[in-house]
Amino acid sequence: MSVAATTSPAVGTLYVSRFPTSRGMPRVTMALRSNVISVGSILTKLQQDCATPFPVIRHVADSMTADMRAGLAVDGGSNLKMILSYVDSLPSGNEKGLFYALDLGGTNFRALRVQLGGKEDRVVATEFEQLSIPQELMFGTSEELFDFIASTLAGFAEKESEKFHLPHGRQREIGFTFSFPVKQTSIDSGILMKWTKGFAVSGTAGRDVVACLNEAMERQGVDMRVSALVNDTVGTLAGARYWDDDVLVAVILGTGTNACYVERTDCIPKLQGPRSSSGRTIINTEWGAFSDGIPLTVFDRDMDAASINPGEQIFEKTISGMYLGEIARRALVTMAEEGSLFGMAVPNKLSTPFALRTPDICAMQQDNSDDLQAVGSILHNVAGVESSLSERRIVVEVCDAIVRRGGRLAGAGIVGILQKMEQDSKGTIFNKRTVVAMDGGLYEHYPQYRSYLQDAVTELLGSDTSKNIVIEHSKDGSGIGAALLAATNSKYDHDF
Ligand code: ADP
Ligand code: MG
Fold it and tell me: Which keywords does this Swiss-Prot/TrEMBL entry list (predicted)?
């Protein structure tokens, strides 16, 4: 729906009947008149600046493909780091035993254990615990953060029920999901390159995060070991692949975003040393750093400038959950300041960075009532304002423009990965069933985002080819995937 169609009639009538042009018009009337115009024009400009018509998504997909190739050619060859995961064999379904997983994401911290029963029994039992990461730990020291993780794990391990069995004399093994850019040096070690998603923990960058965790476990007296360091996308791919052999790509859309896929080792020029016997390995793209051709608004640029990593993670900043609400908030603040949206004063609460969260804009977009009651109450709770129906409609349009761009760009990125694989292995991707496993709170909970994403994929691939591409929420998420990778990389003898 266009802006003018939603907002102008109501506002226009008001303007014409109450404020006829006259030289003696009071100042407030002048202000209202221009304000009415400027809210509409700010919205139109926003919609234009973040529009993603076919040529834009086509360009993004092609550019993603080109950046992937450049990053595979040589380290530092492109924005995309194309990190080797050291995961050369995926779960087969035969895995057996008790394994743990830890997941440090961005918003949440999860600990999970799983008892695997092999091909027949599969997942015999799971238990998990989830905590949100205390805000102060995001800005604290490395020791504080890892001590928190180790002590949470210790508490969780103590509560292991009798459904779980560890053979005598063995250490509990962990798949550690760490969803930040890591230069992996082996399956169980990796150097943190930089924090993302608003984290600024001192003393971790440049260090092996497994060593950080091992040291913390020692300090906390936890007798466990990390067998696999796993990026969350890689965990999602492994977890989904456990159930379905057609899974070749995994994408996370949560607080941040990332994607990984199964690559042929002979297509990785930068790969040195021995190749895996399978001839395949998982590449972690770190696609959040992609930036070519992304349509940006003034609100994106301002948010980026105010962020802790200006100029970086531009794809992530336009498509992931940490940022969508904030971009919308910035647009609404400008509308309030320049167009008196919500009255003459700019609401204080709305002026607080990150006050409007992606789950809020998601909830507003689910409101199908005639008077947009839920939109009104969310605006009341978040921004402390009473809103008119026409104002609520504008708010929904703002959210929709930003979420549409996010979903469509994510879809274009997925097509970029798929077409790279298809170019190298003709007929193996587009002409057969290929599954893209999706996970993350944004994908899981935002129906409009999901459908914009699917629309872009269908537009780019055409309706026939896109029928072969199954984009689906991965039912176990990355947790079980990480535990499965701890199993396949267990230090103990195993025959799976
Ligand atoms: P993480 O990325 O921290 O591992 P999740 O995958 O659980 O975490 O995703 C959490 C993110 O998902 C939140 O930061 C938020 O942006 C988004 N999210 C959570 N709930 C919703 C919701 N109801 N609607 C839209 N987005 C949501
Ligand atoms: Mg996560």
Answer: ATP-binding, Glycolysis, Kinase, Nucleotide-binding, Transferase
